[in-house]
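Researcher: Sequence of ABC transporter permease follows. Predict its structure.
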Amino acid sequence: MAAARVLAAALLVVLLVAWELTVQRAGISALVLPAPTVVARTLWNSLATGYLWPHIGTTVAEMLLGLAMGGAAGLAIGVLLAESALLDRVLKPYVIVSQVVPKLALAPLFVLWFGFGMMPTIVMTALICFFPLMENTLTSLRQVDPNSLQLFRMLGASRAQTLLRLKLRAGLPGILAGLRVALVLALVGAVVGEFIGASRGLGAVIIAAQGMMDTPLMFAALTAIAAIGLLFYQGTLMLERRLLRPYADHP
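Model: Prediction complete. Tokens:
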């Protein structure tokens, strides 16, 4: 594990050095491609002056609220569809349609319905991260060992007992994998949602920097987005290990 982290860090250093040398030797303008040192300086100045912090807070809030809404709906509907073949046949086509419609095309409607501010972005984020958790929940609950299901029936377990004590426990790894995917998509959804009609957030910073032709600021915002994504993804991995540890200790 430690060796893998060292290799990953070494690869990052090599890529940054290659980027820096390429920009310097080729004489590429910062308007086209800023060097890593320029991006780092811009990011530091933006954080030190307090310019980026409100935008970071807005993006993180939209990501977490959208993930909470979409994740809760995805988990609940995944359980319902897994437990009822009738609901699966009736609702699944509508769920699929809700996902194949491009969310960016719906953004102007969300602004019209919910007004300017965070709500349209939160709704878009919820729609984007809903499907991975729903699909993983549905699939995981349906892949429970048939012998274990038969044993629970023989012991007279109710449907609720079977769901809570067997299906959800056995399907927890798959559900948590869906949560990881949903988390990444929630950040993407929050940033993309801010491209349309938002005045705050890292997506709005990117649009403003594009209008000012401030490429270093765009890269600084992208770096902040990448850092947020990595931080929360690692947090999700830690949560997953904590939740799965009792089942690993007591199979």
